[in-house]
Amino acid sequence: MSIDGTPITLWCLEYGSSSFSVTIGNNNSIFDLKKAIFEEISVPDNVKAKNLSLWSVNVEESQLESNTPDGLMTVENEIKIATQKVGNTFYGVQDNNIRVVVRVPVATDQPGAVPKDITAEIIKQLVQSPGQLPNRSDLANFLNENPPVKIPLIPVHFFQFKTGDLDGITEKERDIYFIQNAEEECTSLYSKLLGQLIYPPSFGKNEDSYHGLWDSIIKNTIEIFGKQNASLPTLEFDRNTSKRTTTGRNRPDMVVLVRNVCPFRGEEKSRDDAGDPSKELTEKFKGWNYGNAPYLFAYYAVGVLVTFVTLHKPINKSSNKRKRSVYSERIAEFDLGRLSDRIRVMNFLRNICRILPIIVNLCPQRDSPDFETKIRSNGTVIELGYAVTKKFTDEGQVNHLKEIYGMLQANRVIFSDKLEYSSRHSVHLVPRGEQQEPSDLKGLLQALICILTCLKGMHLSKPKPIMHRDVRWPNIIRHYDEYLRFILIDFDYATFSPADMPLEEFSESDHAPEMLTKKHNFKVDIWGVGNLVVSCNITGIPQELKSFSADLCNNSPSKRPTASNALDRAKEMFRKVIV
To answer: Backbone dihedral region of 521: left (phi > 0), alpha (psi from -120 to 50 degrees) or beta?
Structure first.
């Protein structure tokens, strides 16, 4: 190879070997430099000059702690453009400093062989379940446990982890999680996750600018490790994009859903935003409806600082202090601005993924997600979160509900949901509860007693009786506080009794016949209760309950019992069941 231009002598260091010099012209290309270096070193038979990796550096050889200068082999220093002129890359060369670091690819069995991607195999080992849920007191130690197997990476990926840098990672930390392997590596894991941990997205000052950072580290890690866990087949994510609306008060900023249950959630703020996201995690809760699960996982982020906590229900019910629905306990804090902490977060979340299935299995089953938005055919938007928010296009519908819920409260009607607050076009209702029908006779009778108690109060309300007009299982929720309760919800069609106008848009199968065709009164609700028995999915209904249902669904409204009389009969049947 001829020297083109002014000769330059460059001292080079072969990674893992010794230093040497090459002389080349300033107008020669980087590819010419690779060929010159190729002639000076020993390489495997199937490695060509073009396969060499070069980094531009400027350091005295005596300052190098070893002949493996990992800290200098960064993406910024790597020389990638083969046609670039040597003189434009190396200038002011006047001493014997090391100017080029050279790494020779490890030989593989066949020329051009690509390392085998064993991501699925490795992740399967990394997400193995511990078998049982750690106690809260042991949780921090469990979540910080080192992985049982190291993640193999080819050298070019392995050495992307900066060492010896305040914002980097130490060699000891790196070697806890990763190991070099030229033949097998986690290629997919590197491209989908590890690369983003090494080079995370940039961010600005407002909260939206941090979403890329938070998602690339937190959401991405859970998604990758969670979806490889056979016990988490329905892992879903959702982010709140309505921060400055009533939705922002009704749900977390980020949620993870497994079989409709949310075992992991997060609240987020930029450094300049007002508010305390740690308080939002607990203050938004309206009630603990996660059954026997001892805790859930959550985080709150303020810029690059992320704190992980557990959420758990109160233990001491005898306290005189104001009871809260949920309490939080700090587990760990990380600085996402540091590579070391980003790797530790990955390991922390990996361990969370190992026990998420156990937590979900301890929660009651859900027929609908913990957090969901529905849009009805009439344009009403229903946001299901910690509570229920309904948004109407017609301001009159809000005023109507304020009047109905105001009358329910004034008459101390129980077993109905309540209006917590409202705005011009929306109402905020509590509790959220669970959309789940009773599964046995005892539960069915409990539901009938609760709903008839509610209807008794409504039908005796002053100055006018209130009728619901849409008593069906979709409008009944289960709610746990100290006891199981069934609650009547969705008073959109409620009105005062009697009503002159029929509701022709209702289905005949689920509503009293007179309500669809003519003037009607509160006895339509009694028919609805009788239909609850007919439409339930419980087998072995006793004859007494079938006769009770038939009486309530009598075609003649005047022959149907009052809510008070029906309630007495339901209680009597319940006493027989529990004996």
So the answer is: beta
For residues 58 and 324, the model is more confident at 58
Q: Are 113 and 199 in contact, with CB atoms under 8 Å apart?
A: no
Q: What count of other Cβ atoms lies within 10 Å of the Cβ of residue 318?
A: 4
Whether residue 427 is predicted with pLDDT greater than 80 in this model: the reply is: yes
pLDDT, tens only, 173-205: 999 999 998 889 999 999 999 999 999 988 888
**Rounded distance between C-alpha atoms, residue 579 and residue 574, angstroms:** 9
Rounded Cα–Cα distance for residues 142 and 139 (Å) = 5
- Give phi and psi for 63, each to the nearest 5: -85, -10
Q: Nearest CA to 328 among 356, 293, 301, 296?
A: 296
Quote the CA–CA distance of 59 and 221 in Å, as a whole number. 37
Sequence-separated contacts (24+) of 518-522 with Cβ below 8 Å: 520/557, 521/465, 521/467, 521/497, 521/557, 522/455, 522/458, 522/459, 522/465, 522/466, 522/467, 522/497, 522/498, 522/563
Q: For residue 218, give Cα distances in angstroms to 135, 188, 210, 275, 503.
A: 23, 17, 12, 22, 50
Structure tokens at 547: 């006769």
Integer Cα distance of 485 and 415 in angstroms:
7
Helical (H) or strand (E) element with 91: none
- Bridge-based pairing of strands 53-59 and 78-79 is antiparallel
**358-370 pLDDT tens trace:** 999 999 888 788 8
Q: Which residues contact 222 (CB under 8 A, 6 or more apart)?
A: 235, 237, 256, 264, 349, 352, 353
Task: Give me the helices (H) in 362-440, please.
Answer: 395-410
Tokens of 427: 């109402």
Return the DSSP state at 190.
I
pLDDT tens for 142-180 read 999 999 999 999 988 998 888 877 778 888 999 999 999
